[in-house]
Amino acid sequence: MSKVVRVAVTGAAGRVSSSLIVRLASGEVFGPETKVILQLLEVPASVNPAALKNLEGAMYELQDCGFSTLKDVVITDDPNVAFNGCNYALLVGAAPRGPGEQRSDLIRKNGAIFVGQGQAIAKNAASDVRILVVGNPCNTNCLIAYSNGRDVPADRWHAMTRLDHNRAVSALAIKAGVTNDAVTCVTIWGNHSNTQYPDFTNAKIGGRPATEVITDRAWLENTFVPNTQERGKFIIDTTKVSSSFSAANGAIDHVKSLVTGTPAGDWTSAAIVSKGEYGVPAGLVFGYPCTTSGDGNWNVVEGLKLDAFGEAKFKKTLDELLKEQEVVKDLLPS
Ligand code: NAI
Predict the structure, then answer these.
(1) Nearest Cα residue to atom 42 of ligand 1
(2) d(Cα 199, Cα 192) in Å, to the nearest integer?
(3) Catalytic residues (predicted)?
(4) Ligand 1 touching residue 10 (CB < 6 A)
(5) How far is the CA of 83 from the centre of ligand 1 (A)?
Protein backbone atom coordinates (compact mmCIF):
# COMPACT_ATOMS: atom_id res chain seq x y z
CA MET A 1 0.00 0.00 0.00
CA SER A 2 1.39 3.43 -0.84
CA LYS A 3 2.22 5.93 1.85
CA VAL A 4 -0.07 8.94 2.30
CA VAL A 5 1.19 12.36 3.33
CA ARG A 6 -1.14 15.16 4.36
CA VAL A 7 0.13 18.64 3.56
CA ALA A 8 -1.67 21.71 4.89
CA VAL A 9 -1.06 24.96 3.02
CA THR A 10 -2.39 28.29 4.30
CA GLY A 11 -3.00 31.30 2.12
CA ALA A 12 -3.60 28.66 -0.50
CA ALA A 13 -5.28 30.93 -3.05
CA GLY A 14 -2.43 33.44 -2.90
CA ARG A 15 0.37 33.97 -5.37
CA VAL A 16 3.07 31.92 -3.64
CA SER A 17 0.75 29.03 -2.85
CA SER A 18 -0.58 28.87 -6.42
CA SER A 19 2.88 27.74 -7.54
CA LEU A 20 3.47 25.69 -4.41
CA ILE A 21 0.41 23.45 -4.46
CA VAL A 22 0.97 22.23 -8.01
CA ARG A 23 4.49 21.10 -7.22
CA LEU A 24 3.41 19.46 -3.95
CA ALA A 25 0.73 17.52 -5.83
CA SER A 26 3.00 16.48 -8.68
CA GLY A 27 5.05 13.87 -6.83
CA GLU A 28 8.22 15.94 -7.11
CA VAL A 29 8.68 16.31 -3.34
CA PHE A 30 7.48 13.07 -1.81
CA GLY A 31 8.20 10.73 -4.73
CA PRO A 32 6.04 8.69 -7.09
CA GLU A 33 5.06 6.09 -4.48
CA THR A 34 3.59 8.57 -1.99
CA LYS A 35 0.05 9.87 -2.31
CA VAL A 36 -0.52 13.48 -1.30
CA ILE A 37 -3.63 14.93 0.34
CA LEU A 38 -3.61 18.72 0.12
CA GLN A 39 -5.50 20.51 2.89
CA LEU A 40 -5.86 24.09 1.75
CA LEU A 41 -6.79 26.96 4.05
CA GLU A 42 -8.06 30.40 3.11
CA VAL A 43 -9.79 33.24 4.91
CA PRO A 44 -13.59 33.04 5.30
CA ALA A 45 -15.82 34.64 2.66
CA SER A 46 -16.78 37.27 5.26
CA VAL A 47 -13.15 38.48 5.16
CA ASN A 48 -12.60 38.12 1.40
CA PRO A 49 -15.40 36.70 -0.75
CA ALA A 50 -13.00 35.90 -3.59
CA ALA A 51 -10.50 33.79 -1.63
CA LEU A 52 -12.49 30.57 -1.17
CA LYS A 53 -13.93 30.85 -4.68
CA ASN A 54 -10.40 31.12 -6.09
CA LEU A 55 -9.39 28.16 -3.95
CA GLU A 56 -12.27 26.15 -5.38
CA GLY A 57 -10.96 26.98 -8.84
CA ALA A 58 -7.48 25.87 -7.82
CA MET A 59 -8.92 22.57 -6.58
CA TYR A 60 -10.56 21.94 -9.97
CA GLU A 61 -7.31 22.75 -11.76
CA LEU A 62 -5.39 20.37 -9.49
CA GLN A 63 -7.90 17.65 -10.36
CA ASP A 64 -7.45 18.47 -14.04
CA CYS A 65 -3.68 17.96 -13.81
CA GLY A 66 -4.39 14.25 -13.38
CA PHE A 67 -1.39 13.69 -11.11
CA SER A 68 -1.04 10.03 -10.16
CA THR A 69 0.27 11.17 -6.76
CA LEU A 70 -2.65 13.42 -5.76
CA LYS A 71 -5.14 11.55 -3.60
CA ASP A 72 -7.42 14.34 -2.45
CA VAL A 73 -7.81 18.10 -2.09
CA VAL A 74 -9.61 19.60 0.90
CA ILE A 75 -10.50 23.30 0.82
CA THR A 76 -11.59 25.06 3.98
CA ASP A 77 -11.65 28.26 6.00
CA ASP A 78 -11.33 26.31 9.27
CA PRO A 79 -7.76 25.84 10.61
CA ASN A 80 -8.91 22.76 12.57
CA VAL A 81 -9.88 21.09 9.29
CA ALA A 82 -6.80 22.27 7.40
CA PHE A 83 -4.35 21.01 10.04
CA ASN A 84 -6.23 17.80 10.81
CA GLY A 85 -3.69 14.97 10.80
CA CYS A 86 -1.25 16.96 8.67
CA ASN A 87 2.35 15.75 8.38
CA TYR A 88 3.51 19.08 6.97
CA ALA A 89 2.04 22.52 7.55
CA LEU A 90 3.23 25.23 5.21
CA LEU A 91 2.11 28.55 6.64
CA VAL A 92 2.10 30.93 3.69
CA GLY A 93 -1.01 32.99 4.44
CA ALA A 94 -0.39 36.36 6.02
CA ALA A 95 -1.68 39.87 5.64
CA PRO A 96 0.41 42.13 3.40
CA ARG A 97 1.87 45.36 4.72
CA GLY A 98 -0.67 48.15 4.19
CA PRO A 99 0.03 51.74 3.05
CA GLY A 100 1.94 53.64 5.71
CA GLU A 101 2.30 50.60 7.95
CA GLN A 102 5.61 49.97 9.69
CA ARG A 103 7.22 46.54 9.95
CA SER A 104 6.25 46.50 13.65
CA ASP A 105 2.56 47.09 12.68
CA LEU A 106 2.74 44.15 10.29
CA ILE A 107 4.31 41.96 12.98
CA ARG A 108 1.45 42.74 15.35
CA LYS A 109 -1.21 42.31 12.63
CA ASN A 110 0.11 38.93 11.51
CA GLY A 111 0.99 37.86 15.03
CA ALA A 112 -2.65 37.17 15.84
CA ILE A 113 -2.93 34.78 12.86
CA PHE A 114 0.03 32.74 14.08
CA VAL A 115 -1.25 32.51 17.67
CA GLY A 116 -4.38 30.75 16.40
CA GLN A 117 -2.58 28.64 13.84
CA GLY A 118 0.06 27.50 16.35
CA GLN A 119 -2.71 26.38 18.69
CA ALA A 120 -4.64 24.66 15.88
CA ILE A 121 -1.53 22.78 14.73
CA ALA A 122 -0.80 21.54 18.25
CA LYS A 123 -4.41 20.40 18.57
CA ASN A 124 -4.87 18.73 15.19
CA ALA A 125 -1.64 17.84 13.41
CA ALA A 126 -0.07 14.39 13.10
CA SER A 127 2.51 13.47 15.74
CA ASP A 128 5.33 13.73 13.15
CA VAL A 129 4.32 17.18 11.85
CA ARG A 130 6.92 19.59 10.43
CA ILE A 131 5.97 23.25 10.07
CA LEU A 132 7.46 25.77 7.67
CA VAL A 133 6.47 29.42 8.07
CA VAL A 134 6.73 31.43 4.85
CA GLY A 135 4.35 34.31 5.59
CA ASN A 136 6.24 37.40 6.68
CA PRO A 137 7.82 38.36 8.98
CA CYS A 138 8.43 34.63 8.91
CA ASN A 139 10.99 34.22 11.72
CA THR A 140 8.86 36.03 14.26
CA ASN A 141 5.61 34.51 12.98
CA CYS A 142 7.26 31.13 13.52
CA LEU A 143 8.32 32.18 17.02
CA ILE A 144 4.70 33.11 17.79
CA ALA A 145 3.28 29.90 16.31
CA TYR A 146 5.63 27.56 18.12
CA SER A 147 5.23 29.46 21.41
CA ASN A 148 1.48 28.87 21.12
CA GLY A 149 1.82 25.27 19.99
CA ARG A 150 4.27 23.91 22.52
CA ASP A 151 2.81 20.42 22.43
CA VAL A 152 4.70 20.12 19.14
CA PRO A 153 8.45 19.86 19.84
CA ALA A 154 10.42 23.05 19.14
CA ASP A 155 12.66 21.43 16.51
CA ARG A 156 9.67 20.88 14.21
CA TRP A 157 9.09 24.60 13.64
CA HIS A 158 10.99 26.30 10.81
CA ALA A 159 10.92 29.63 9.00
CA MET A 160 12.01 29.98 5.40
CA THR A 161 15.43 31.34 4.49
CA ARG A 162 15.81 28.95 1.57
CA LEU A 163 14.78 31.56 -1.00
CA ASP A 164 17.53 33.86 0.31
CA HIS A 165 19.94 30.93 0.20
CA ASN A 166 19.07 30.17 -3.41
CA ARG A 167 19.42 33.84 -4.31
CA ALA A 168 22.89 33.97 -2.74
CA VAL A 169 24.02 30.79 -4.52
CA SER A 170 22.84 32.14 -7.85
CA ALA A 171 24.49 35.56 -7.36
CA LEU A 172 27.85 33.95 -6.54
CA ALA A 173 27.54 31.54 -9.47
CA ILE A 174 26.79 34.35 -11.92
CA LYS A 175 29.75 36.40 -10.66
CA ALA A 176 32.12 33.42 -10.85
CA GLY A 177 30.80 32.33 -14.26
CA VAL A 178 29.87 28.86 -13.02
CA THR A 179 26.61 26.96 -12.70
CA ASN A 180 24.70 26.96 -9.41
CA ASP A 181 25.75 23.43 -8.51
CA ALA A 182 29.40 24.56 -8.18
CA VAL A 183 28.46 26.84 -5.27
CA THR A 184 28.26 25.15 -1.86
CA CYS A 185 28.36 25.94 1.86
CA VAL A 186 26.44 29.22 1.64
CA THR A 187 24.66 30.36 4.80
CA ILE A 188 21.92 32.88 5.44
CA TRP A 189 22.39 33.83 9.07
CA GLY A 190 19.57 35.37 11.08
CA ASN A 191 16.39 37.01 9.94
CA HIS A 192 14.56 36.75 6.61
CA SER A 193 14.78 40.51 6.21
CA ASN A 194 17.25 43.02 4.91
CA THR A 195 19.46 42.46 7.96
CA GLN A 196 20.14 38.81 7.05
CA TYR A 197 23.81 37.96 6.60
CA PRO A 198 24.50 36.02 3.40
CA ASP A 199 27.85 34.53 4.40
CA PHE A 200 30.35 34.30 1.56
CA THR A 201 33.33 33.75 3.86
CA ASN A 202 32.52 30.08 4.47
CA ALA A 203 31.10 29.49 0.98
CA LYS A 204 32.87 27.43 -1.67
CA ILE A 205 32.93 27.60 -5.43
CA GLY A 206 34.11 24.49 -7.24
CA GLY A 207 35.28 23.22 -3.83
CA ARG A 208 37.57 26.23 -3.24
CA PRO A 209 36.89 29.10 -0.83
CA ALA A 210 34.58 31.55 -2.62
CA THR A 211 36.92 34.37 -1.59
CA GLU A 212 39.75 32.73 -3.57
CA VAL A 213 37.57 32.44 -6.68
CA ILE A 214 35.96 35.89 -6.35
CA THR A 215 38.90 37.97 -5.14
CA ASP A 216 37.01 41.27 -5.36
CA ARG A 217 36.26 41.60 -1.65
CA ALA A 218 34.65 45.01 -2.20
CA TRP A 219 32.10 43.38 -4.53
CA LEU A 220 31.38 40.66 -1.99
CA GLU A 221 30.86 43.13 0.86
CA ASN A 222 29.29 46.06 -0.96
CA THR A 223 27.33 44.44 -3.80
CA PHE A 224 26.71 40.77 -3.07
CA VAL A 225 25.62 41.23 0.55
CA PRO A 226 23.24 44.20 0.09
CA ASN A 227 21.86 42.86 -3.19
CA THR A 228 21.00 39.54 -1.55
CA GLN A 229 19.52 41.32 1.46
CA GLU A 230 17.41 43.56 -0.77
CA ARG A 231 16.60 41.08 -3.53
CA GLY A 232 12.94 40.84 -2.47
CA LYS A 233 12.55 44.61 -2.78
CA PHE A 234 14.38 44.54 -6.12
CA ILE A 235 11.84 42.04 -7.46
CA ILE A 236 8.96 44.22 -6.22
CA ASP A 237 10.54 47.33 -7.76
CA THR A 238 10.91 45.47 -11.07
CA THR A 239 7.56 43.70 -11.29
CA LYS A 240 5.40 45.64 -8.78
CA VAL A 241 4.61 42.36 -7.01
CA SER A 242 6.62 40.22 -4.61
CA SER A 243 8.43 37.00 -5.47
CA SER A 244 6.02 34.16 -6.10
CA PHE A 245 7.35 31.09 -7.90
CA SER A 246 10.86 31.54 -6.53
CA ALA A 247 9.37 31.72 -3.03
CA ALA A 248 7.34 28.59 -3.70
CA ASN A 249 10.51 26.96 -5.00
CA GLY A 250 12.29 27.85 -1.75
CA ALA A 251 9.54 26.14 0.23
CA ILE A 252 9.67 23.10 -2.05
CA ASP A 253 13.46 22.91 -1.63
CA HIS A 254 13.14 23.19 2.16
CA VAL A 255 10.67 20.30 2.39
CA LYS A 256 12.52 18.25 -0.23
CA SER A 257 15.72 18.51 1.83
CA LEU A 258 13.86 17.24 4.90
CA VAL A 259 12.60 14.29 2.87
CA THR A 260 15.73 13.43 0.88
CA GLY A 261 18.63 15.00 2.80
CA THR A 262 21.33 17.56 2.07
CA PRO A 263 24.31 16.49 -0.10
CA ALA A 264 27.51 15.33 1.64
CA GLY A 265 29.96 18.20 2.06
CA ASP A 266 27.29 20.85 1.72
CA TRP A 267 24.59 22.43 3.81
CA THR A 268 21.60 24.66 3.33
CA SER A 269 19.98 27.51 5.23
CA ALA A 270 16.92 27.25 7.46
CA ALA A 271 15.61 29.35 10.31
CA ILE A 272 14.97 27.11 13.30
CA VAL A 273 14.32 27.43 17.01
CA SER A 274 17.75 28.12 18.50
CA LYS A 275 19.14 25.90 21.21
CA GLY A 276 21.80 28.54 21.83
CA GLU A 277 24.06 27.68 18.90
CA TYR A 278 26.54 30.44 17.99
CA GLY A 279 25.52 32.40 21.09
CA VAL A 280 21.96 33.09 19.90
CA PRO A 281 19.54 33.12 22.86
CA ALA A 282 17.68 29.82 23.04
CA GLY A 283 14.16 30.02 21.69
CA LEU A 284 14.74 32.64 19.00
CA VAL A 285 13.95 31.55 15.41
CA PHE A 286 17.29 32.18 13.75
CA GLY A 287 18.69 31.34 10.32
CA TYR A 288 21.53 28.82 10.52
CA PRO A 289 23.58 26.57 8.27
CA CYS A 290 21.78 23.25 8.46
CA THR A 291 22.13 19.67 7.29
CA THR A 292 19.64 16.86 7.35
CA SER A 293 19.91 13.17 6.62
CA GLY A 294 16.38 13.22 5.19
CA ASP A 295 14.83 12.08 8.47
CA GLY A 296 12.91 15.35 8.81
CA ASN A 297 15.31 16.89 11.33
CA TRP A 298 17.71 19.80 10.88
CA ASN A 299 21.18 19.73 12.44
CA VAL A 300 23.04 23.02 12.83
CA VAL A 301 26.54 22.99 11.32
CA GLU A 302 28.81 23.81 14.24
CA GLY A 303 32.22 25.44 14.37
CA LEU A 304 32.03 27.94 11.49
CA LYS A 305 34.09 31.08 12.02
CA LEU A 306 33.05 34.59 11.05
CA ASP A 307 35.48 37.44 10.45
CA ALA A 308 34.97 40.95 11.84
CA PHE A 309 32.73 41.92 8.88
CA GLY A 310 30.58 38.82 9.41
CA GLU A 311 30.46 39.26 13.19
CA ALA A 312 29.05 42.79 12.77
CA LYS A 313 26.39 41.57 10.31
CA PHE A 314 25.52 38.64 12.58
CA LYS A 315 25.04 40.98 15.52
CA LYS A 316 22.82 43.32 13.51
CA THR A 317 20.41 40.59 12.40
CA LEU A 318 20.37 39.06 15.90
CA ASP A 319 19.55 42.46 17.40
CA GLU A 320 16.68 42.89 14.94
CA LEU A 321 15.19 39.51 15.89
CA LEU A 322 15.48 40.35 19.59
CA LYS A 323 13.61 43.62 18.93
CA GLU A 324 10.90 41.77 16.99
CA GLN A 325 10.57 39.34 19.89
CA GLU A 326 10.03 42.31 22.21
CA VAL A 327 7.27 43.71 19.95
CA VAL A 328 5.28 40.45 20.22
CA LYS A 329 6.18 39.41 23.76
CA ASP A 330 2.54 39.51 24.92
CA LEU A 331 1.75 36.89 22.23
CA LEU A 332 4.35 34.46 23.59
CA PRO A 333 3.03 32.34 26.45
CA SER A 334 5.93 31.32 28.68
P1 NAI B 1 -0.90 36.87 -1.41
O2 NAI B 1 -1.48 38.12 -0.83
O3 NAI B 1 -0.98 36.61 -2.87
O4 NAI B 1 -1.56 35.61 -0.68
C5 NAI B 1 -1.72 35.54 0.69
C6 NAI B 1 -2.96 34.73 0.94
O7 NAI B 1 -3.05 34.46 2.33
C8 NAI B 1 -4.25 35.46 0.52
O9 NAI B 1 -4.96 34.65 -0.39
C10 NAI B 1 -4.97 35.66 1.84
O11 NAI B 1 -6.39 35.55 1.68
C12 NAI B 1 -4.41 34.50 2.66
N13 NAI B 1 -4.54 34.68 4.11
C14 NAI B 1 -4.37 35.79 4.84
N15 NAI B 1 -4.61 35.53 6.13
C16 NAI B 1 -4.89 34.22 6.23
C17 NAI B 1 -5.22 33.36 7.29
N18 NAI B 1 -5.33 33.81 8.55
N19 NAI B 1 -5.44 32.05 7.02
C20 NAI B 1 -5.37 31.59 5.77
N21 NAI B 1 -5.08 32.36 4.69
C22 NAI B 1 -4.83 33.66 4.94
O23 NAI B 1 0.61 36.82 -0.89
P24 NAI B 1 1.81 35.95 -1.46
O25 NAI B 1 2.52 36.73 -2.49
O26 NAI B 1 1.32 34.59 -1.78
O27 NAI B 1 2.77 35.91 -0.18
C28 NAI B 1 2.37 35.19 0.98
C29 NAI B 1 3.31 35.49 2.13
O30 NAI B 1 4.59 34.96 1.86
C31 NAI B 1 3.51 36.99 2.39
O32 NAI B 1 3.53 37.20 3.79
C33 NAI B 1 4.88 37.24 1.82
O34 NAI B 1 5.51 38.35 2.42
C35 NAI B 1 5.56 35.95 2.17
N36 NAI B 1 6.78 35.65 1.43
C37 NAI B 1 7.82 35.10 2.12
C38 NAI B 1 9.00 34.80 1.49
C39 NAI B 1 10.14 34.19 2.26
O40 NAI B 1 11.21 34.04 1.65
N41 NAI B 1 10.00 33.84 3.52
C42 NAI B 1 9.17 35.09 0.06
C43 NAI B 1 8.00 35.62 -0.59
C44 NAI B 1 6.84 35.88 0.08
Answers:
(1) 247
(2) 14
(3) 192
(4) yes
(5) 17
- Cα 67 to the chain's mean position, in Å? 25
- Please indicate whether residue 133, judged by its CB atom, sits closer than 6 Å to ligand 1: no
| Residue 233, Cβ density class (10 Å: 0-12 exposed, 13-18 middle, ≥19 buried) | exposed
Question: The whole model's pTM is what?
Answer: 0.98
Q: Is residue 96 within 6 Å of ligand 1 at its C-beta?
A: yes
Which residues fall in the annotated binding site for substrate? 97, 103, 136, 167
Chain centroid offset of residue 156 CA: 13
209 preceded by a cis bond (ω within 30 of 0)? no
Strands of the 130-133 sheet, one edge to the other: 70-76, 34-41, 3-10, 88-91, 130-133, 157-159, 268-273, 285-291, 299-300
What pLDDT digit, counting tens, does each position of 160-171 carry?
Answer: 999 999 999 999
For ligand 1, whether the C-beta of 106 sits within 6 Å is: no
Percent of the chain with pLDDT over 90: 92
Q: Among all residues, which ones are annotated catalytic? A: 192
Ligand 1 pocket, mutate which of 9, 20, 39, 43 (most atoms under 8 A from CB): 43
CA distances from 243 to 53, 164, 246, 248 (A): 23, 11, 6, 9
